[in-house]
Design a protein that fits this description.
By secondary structure, the chain is mainly beta. It is 0% helix and 48% strand. It is built from no helices and ten strands. The strands form two sheets. It has a six-stranded mixed sheet, with no helix packed on it. A four-stranded antiparallel sheet has the order 1-3-8-7, with no helix packed on it. Strand 5 and strand 6 form a beta hairpin. The termini are far apart.
Protein backbone atom coordinates (compact mmCIF):
# COMPACT_ATOMS: atom_id res chain seq x y z
CA UNK A 1 0.00 0.00 0.00
CA UNK A 2 1.29 3.46 -0.85
CA UNK A 3 2.26 5.72 2.06
CA UNK A 4 2.63 9.48 2.09
CA UNK A 5 4.87 11.89 4.03
CA UNK A 6 3.98 15.57 3.97
CA UNK A 7 6.37 18.50 4.47
CA UNK A 8 6.79 22.20 3.79
CA UNK A 9 4.33 23.76 6.21
CA UNK A 10 5.09 26.74 8.40
CA UNK A 11 4.02 30.14 9.63
CA UNK A 12 3.35 32.81 7.02
CA UNK A 13 1.63 36.18 6.92
CA UNK A 14 -1.60 36.69 5.04
CA UNK A 15 -0.88 37.20 1.37
CA UNK A 16 2.22 35.04 1.51
CA UNK A 17 3.03 31.73 -0.18
CA UNK A 18 4.07 28.23 0.77
CA UNK A 19 4.86 25.11 -1.21
CA UNK A 20 3.93 21.78 0.32
CA UNK A 21 5.48 18.49 -0.75
CA UNK A 22 4.18 14.96 -0.39
CA UNK A 23 6.56 12.08 -0.90
CA UNK A 24 4.97 8.74 -1.72
CA UNK A 25 6.40 5.27 -1.26
CA UNK A 26 5.96 2.37 -3.65
CA UNK A 27 6.04 1.83 -7.39
CA UNK A 28 2.34 2.36 -8.02
CA UNK A 29 2.34 6.12 -7.43
CA UNK A 30 2.14 6.99 -11.10
CA UNK A 31 -1.04 4.91 -11.44
CA UNK A 32 -3.08 6.57 -8.70
CA UNK A 33 -4.99 9.82 -8.33
CA UNK A 34 -3.78 11.85 -5.39
CA UNK A 35 -5.33 14.63 -3.33
CA UNK A 36 -4.49 17.22 -0.74
CA UNK A 37 -6.80 17.56 2.25
CA UNK A 38 -6.79 19.87 5.24
CA UNK A 39 -8.26 19.91 8.72
CA UNK A 40 -8.68 23.11 10.71
CA UNK A 41 -9.13 23.02 14.51
CA UNK A 42 -12.63 21.93 15.42
CA UNK A 43 -13.57 21.18 11.82
CA UNK A 44 -13.84 18.10 9.67
CA UNK A 45 -11.16 17.19 7.18
CA UNK A 46 -11.93 18.66 3.76
CA UNK A 47 -10.75 18.02 0.23
CA UNK A 48 -8.59 20.82 -1.13
CA UNK A 49 -7.24 19.69 -4.51
CA UNK A 50 -6.95 16.55 -6.63
CA UNK A 51 -4.76 15.38 -9.49
CA UNK A 52 -5.35 12.25 -11.52
CA UNK A 53 -2.91 10.10 -13.49
CA UNK A 54 -3.29 12.35 -16.54
CA UNK A 55 -2.49 15.37 -14.32
CA UNK A 56 -6.01 16.72 -14.64
CA UNK A 57 -6.68 18.83 -11.56
CA UNK A 58 -9.64 20.01 -9.53
CA UNK A 59 -9.94 22.41 -6.59
CA UNK A 60 -12.26 23.34 -3.78
CA UNK A 61 -13.99 26.65 -4.48
CA UNK A 62 -12.29 28.19 -1.45
CA UNK A 63 -8.79 27.75 -2.95
CA UNK A 64 -9.48 27.98 -6.69
CA UNK A 65 -7.18 30.49 -8.34
CA UNK A 66 -4.80 30.56 -5.36
CA UNK A 67 -3.58 26.95 -5.00
CA UNK A 68 -1.97 24.73 -7.63
CA UNK A 69 -1.51 20.98 -7.32
CA UNK A 70 1.11 19.20 -9.41
CA UNK A 71 2.92 15.88 -9.50
CA UNK A 72 6.35 14.57 -10.45
CA UNK A 73 6.07 10.85 -11.10
CA UNK A 74 9.85 10.47 -11.44
CA UNK A 75 10.20 11.67 -7.84
CA UNK A 76 7.02 10.04 -6.49
CA UNK A 77 6.03 13.48 -5.21
CA UNK A 78 2.95 15.68 -5.25
CA UNK A 79 3.14 19.40 -4.59
CA UNK A 80 0.70 22.05 -3.46
CA UNK A 81 1.70 25.61 -4.30
CA UNK A 82 -0.31 27.97 -2.10
CA UNK A 83 -0.39 31.67 -2.95
CA UNK A 84 -2.34 34.60 -1.53
CA UNK A 85 -2.77 32.72 1.72
CA UNK A 86 -5.55 33.73 4.10
CA UNK A 87 -5.96 33.14 7.84
CA UNK A 88 -8.79 30.72 7.03
CA UNK A 89 -6.25 28.51 5.24
CA UNK A 90 -4.74 27.67 8.62
CA UNK A 91 -4.94 23.90 9.06
CA UNK A 92 -3.00 20.67 9.05
CA UNK A 93 -2.54 19.61 5.43
CA UNK A 94 -2.48 15.96 4.40
CA UNK A 95 -2.07 14.10 1.15
CA UNK A 96 -3.66 10.78 0.36
CA UNK A 97 -5.24 8.94 -2.51
CA UNK A 98 -8.33 10.56 -4.02
CA UNK A 99 -10.80 8.89 -1.71
CA UNK A 100 -8.49 8.68 1.27
CA UNK A 101 -7.80 4.95 1.08
CA UNK A 102 -4.21 5.06 2.34
CA UNK A 103 -3.16 5.35 5.97
CA UNK A 104 -3.19 9.00 6.99
CA UNK A 105 0.20 10.53 7.72
CA UNK A 106 1.15 13.17 10.28
CA UNK A 107 0.36 16.04 7.96
CA UNK A 108 2.10 19.39 7.89
CA UNK A 109 0.90 22.44 9.82
CA UNK A 110 0.17 25.63 7.92
CA UNK A 111 -0.49 28.73 9.98
CA UNK A 112 -1.44 32.01 8.32
CA UNK A 113 -1.36 35.10 10.50
CA UNK A 114 -3.52 38.14 9.83
Amino acid sequence: QVQFVESGGGLVQAGGSLRLSCAASGSTFRFIAVAWYRQAPGKQRELVATINIASTTSYADSVKGRFTISRDNAKNTVYLQMNSLKPEDTAVYYCNTWGGSATWGQGTQVTVSA
